[in-house]
Automatic annotation (TrEMBL):
UniProt similarity note: Belongs to the universal stress protein A family.
Matching Gene3D superfamilies: HUPs
The UspA domain, residue ranges: 4-142
Record InterPro entries: Rossmann-like_a/b/a_fold, Universal_stress_UspA, UspA
Name the UniProt record assigns to this protein: UspA domain-containing protein
């Protein structure tokens, strides 16, 4: 197996952010890999007919700007990692953007937490982690952050 040098870690800045970031950073650090935290601000494609107000684009940009501040704080928190750490925020559809970014960065692995969506929501949307697993060109490690030891 080739050495894992670069790991993309999608984060969503929800209540599981600490668990996801800690677990992924620990795994990457053991391998001496660079960590790239990655967040996608939903662009709400498909809702265009409902969200035609011109200020919607401004709201998305403001949300991206606020998220970039959170990302900068997250990257600062993990500066101690041996392989280095960086962060990136984009606007788009989560699974597509994660896979595209991992390909552009020539990532050796994606480490992504699952949130355990079920029922109608999973049927209609599928989970982001599931879509990433099915479309990524590099290995994807998934884990349930709710089942990690505290």
């Amino acid at each position: 197996m080739d050495k894992i040098k670069k790991v993309v870690v999608p984060v969503d800045f929800t209540s599981t952010i600490d668990k996801v970031a800690n677990y992924a950073a620990s795994m990457a650090d053991m391998m001496g890999a660079q960590v790239i935290f990655f967040h996608v601000v939903n662009d709400f494609r498909g809702y265009d007919m409902l969200l035609v107000h011109p200020s919607f684009a401004v709201i998305k940009q403001e949300l991206k700007d606020k998220t970039e501040k959170k990302m900068a704080d997250l990257v600062q928190e993990y500066q101690h990692l041996k392989g280095g750490v960086s962060g990136k925020v984009v606007i788009g559809k989560a699974a597509e953007e994660i896979v595209t970014f991992a390909n552009q960065e020539k990532a050796d692995m994606i480490i992504i937490g699952t949130r355990g969506i079920k029922g109608l929501e999973e049927f209609l949307m599928g989970s982001t982690a599931k879509q990433v697993v099915n479309t990524a060109s590099c290995p994807v490690l998934t884990f349930n952050p709710f089942k990690l030891n505290k």
